[in-house]
Amino acid sequence: MNTTRLRQRLTGTAAAAVLIGAGALATAPSAVAKANLLTINKVSLHASGLQASVKYSCDTGMHHQLVANATSVESDHEESIAAGTIKSAKLTCDYADHTALVKLRTATGSHFAKGDTVKLTVFYFDDEGFSYAHRTAVVVL
Predict the structure, then answer these.
(1) Which pTM value belongs to this model?
(2) Residues ≥6 apart with Cβ < 8 Å to 98
C-alpha cells in the first residue's frame, strides 16, 4: 500500500470519528451539561440568623445535601459564623433549575446585624463525605 492511500484512509477514519463524536454530543440532553450547579441569589437576616436563596440543579438519583456556611467579614464584633443544610430528601434533582431557601443558624456567641459584611459559601456534600460545586459570595446585610 502506498503512503498516499494510507494517508487517505487515516484521514477518512479521523473524519468519521470526529463526526460520530459531534453527533453524540449534539444528541445528548442539554440538561446534563448544567446539572449540579449552584448560584447564590440573595443573603438576608432571618430570626434564627441568616437565610440564603440559592438556585440549584442536580442530577437525578443524586443523594447529597445542600450546605451553606457564613462568616462575618470586618465587623465591629468578633467573627460570627452560621450554617445551614437542606437534606437530600428535600432537594428536587431532575436536571432543572430550582430555588431553595437555606436557613442558617448562628453558632453560640455569634451575631449578625444589618450592615455587616458576610462571606457565604454554598456547596453540595455527598454520602461519601465529598463536597463539590462550591460557590462564594460576599454581601452586605
Answers:
(1) 0.73
(2) 55, 56, 57, 91, 92
